[in-house]
Specification:
Elements (H helix, E strand, L loop, with lengths): L1 H22 L1 H23 L6 H6 L1 H18 L5 H7 L3 H13 L4 H17 L7 H22 L6 H23 L7 H4 L2 H29 L1 H7 L2 H14 L5 H24 L2
Length: 282
């Protein structure tokens, strides 16, 4: 599951960048969210005939705000100010924020996850050592903190509905917030069908809406249920490695020696998290 999640999220930044540059972050999020909600609506209501539980919808509001509204939107906005490689690497400082939140909540330190977070952040700092921290990078770091918060809340908030319904509720909340806020973000936002029909926009929207808005979150919340938020947050450290190679192949962004060294630190941290988890379960 960690590998599948890494493949999806690792590819989302480079796949999304060209479409975002063409139609903007808000429109891109709107279209992706519509795709996600429509697919989930068909699956939840027509295929599995699940009933909407209003109490769980209310409980999912903070999860939808953090996980599916703020984080993807801020990530898309950041791509206006930085390249896909740097954005896709910086976002994976998330395990460090998650571990920090748990230290505050539990008033105790889990050495395994602290080591993983330390190696991950060290690798990321080495990765971007040659570049300054600008607007795009700051937006990504804010998004990362929100993501860590949403991940912890996903474990702590007692939503009884199944995974499909939880992802559906959160996507619906995100779409509602985008519709309500989009008119205030720009005066020239329009929804021309001619734009969305273009392959360079349509294909990234479909890919991100289906894989990044539906499938990956079902796996993500399942992993949180089974392994906890800290282990799950460490799992996504594979994503920047994948994203770097995709960005280099499709967007002609170069790989430097510092990037390779940083990826070695990131992979080492991931190995510690899962190796020890496996050993402790024997």
């Amino acid at each position: 599951m960690a590998l599948v999640i890494a493949l999806i999220w690792g590819s989302n930044f480079p796949v999304s960048k060209s479409a975002i540059e063409h139609i903007g972050a808000w429109l891109f999020r709107f279209y992706c969210n519509v795709i996600s909600v429509v697919i989930l609506l068909i699956v939840v209501l027509f295929l599995f005939r699940k009933e909407i539980v209003f109490k769980d919808v209310l409980l999912c509001i903070p999860l939808g705000v953090f996980n599916l509204f703020l984080v993807p939107l801020l990530n898309n906005i950041a791509l206006f100010y930085t390249d896909a490689v740097k954005a896709s690497v910086l976002i994976y400082t998330m395990p460090a924020f998650t571990s920090l939140i748990y230290v505050v909540i539990n008033r105790s330190i889990n050495i395994k996850y602290v080591m993983t977070a330390f190696l991950g952040v060290t690798g990321i700092l080495i990765f971007i050592a040659v570049d300054k921290i600008g607007t795009g990078e700051l937006i990504i770091l804010i998004s990362t903190f929100f993501w860590a918060t949403g991940t912890v809340l996903s474990e702590k908030i007692p939503v009884k509905s199944n995974l499909l319904l939880r992802v559906f509720y959160q996507n619906g909340i995100s779409l509602l917030l985008i519709v309500l806020t989009m008119p205030f973000m720009s005066d020239d936002i329009q929804l021309p069908l001619s734009v969305i029909s273009q392959p360079r926009v349509l294909l990234p929207v479909l890919y991100t809406g289906i894989t990044g808005g539906v499938f990956v979150y079902i796996l993500w919340f399942y992993m949180i249920e089974k392994g906890g938020a800290e282990l799950t947050s460490c799992a996504i450290l594979l994503s920047p490695v994948i994203s770097v190679f995709i960005s280099c192949f499709f967007l002609d962004e170069s790989v430097t020696l510092s990037m390779l060294a940083g990826m070695l630190f990131i992979i080492s941290g991931l190995f510690i998290a899962f190796r020890k988890e496996k050993s402790s379960g024997r």
